Each structure stands twice: as C-alpha cells, then as structure tokens.
Amino acid sequence: MFVGWHMTTKLITITPDTPMLKAREIMDEHRISHLPVTDNKGRLLGLVTDRDLREAWASPASTLSVYELTYILQKVTVEGIMKKNLITATPDMTIERAALIMHDQKIGCLPVLSSDNRLIGIITTADLMAVLLKAMGMSDDSGRLTVLVRDRVGVLSRVTSILAEKNINIRSVMVHPLPGYEGVWQLLLRFRQGVLEEAARVLEEAGFKVLKEYQEDLTPYLPE
C-alpha cells in the first residue's frame, strides 16, 4: 500500500493572504482540520491547522472586545501563523512509513508532493485509520479469531492450509507480537460471521488454541 493510493486528492487550499477568520470558516464548512497554503502555481508554502487557529484566537482574546477581535481576525492573514518547515510525503511512500513519521513527529497529516514539488494530495491520521480498518477486514458481518503461535518458519502457512483444506475463506490476516511474551505472536484472523465457529473448530481440532474473546489470563492459550 502506498500513500498515492490512499491520499485525499480533492484538496481545499488557501493562499498566504487568506484572513484567519476566513480560514476558520473554511475549516468549519468542510469539517477539516488542516489547510495547505499554496501559491498560484500549486506549490506548497505552508500549512494551517485547527490548533494554529485556536492558539491565534486565544492570544489576544483576554484584552480585546468581541468586536475588536473579529475585526483583527478579518484583517490578519494566515501567513503569520502557518507552519513553513513541513514534513512531506511522496506518492510512492509506503503507508506504514507515513504512519511511522506521523507517530514519531506527533503530527496529524502529511502533505503529498509531486516530483516537481507541487501539492497533489494530503494524507491524515483519519486516512490511515480507514486503511487499517480495511486491511483488517472490519465489517458488521465479520468476526475475529486469535491464535497465539511461536515465531517459527511456516506457522502461518500451516494455519492457512488447514483452513483452505476445509474451504474456509480468510478475509484478512494480521500478525503482531504479543506484549510481554517474547517469541509469541498473535495471528489475527478475520472471517465472515457465518463460518467463524467452523473456523474455530477446525483450528482447535488441528491442535491450535483459539481465542474468541478477550482473556485476562493467557496461560492456557500460550503455544508450547
């Protein structure tokens, strides 16, 4: 999965001379939290966030009347508050790399630039959450089983082969280390609700211990 496949391309942008009050109205109207600032050639100049506007609102609010504050916000432009030293992405960046950058830098979005530095998209934490949910096969008609396994070559192949022999389709598979248990991994298997119980039975008959719900004590479910 790459950023270019999942980024938002129908962009709402502003220019540096956009008044802060207008930027606030645009965010409220479109229910967004990030506004890229571009020039007339579509090149990225900066970014204004909901937080930037709230902080700008708060700074003079204690000493000005509502009318004075409104007047100032109609005149003051976003050029003075926009972030200019931005971390950006390219369309060929992987989704997981984008997620890592946003997590490590504690930012809510990455503007996406073309090879000639034009703004062509934006990817946000909400976009990443949507990708994760789709990757996990989340839907109202699906359910999940968890199998704890040792970190060994071929274990995933064995699980999928057992299910394939019984013609049970897996909607999604995720593999994640089990916190606090070195060398133990979680196989997160999602199925259509109609085959969930059969899938659990087949795996248990093959010797796997299947978790259907949260258990505080995992001792009985740990692989040998």
Automatic annotation (TrEMBL):
Keywords: CBS domain
Domain annotation ACT: ranges: 144-224
Domain CBS residues, every copy: 7-63, 82-142
CDD domains for this protein: CBS_pair_AcuB_like (cd04584)
Keyword Iron-sulfur in annotation: no
Record-linked PROSITE patterns: ACT, CBS
Entry keyword Transport: no
Protein name: Acetoin utilization protein AcuB
Lineage: Bacteria, Pseudomonadati, Thermodesulfobacteriota, Syntrophobacteria, Syntrophobacterales
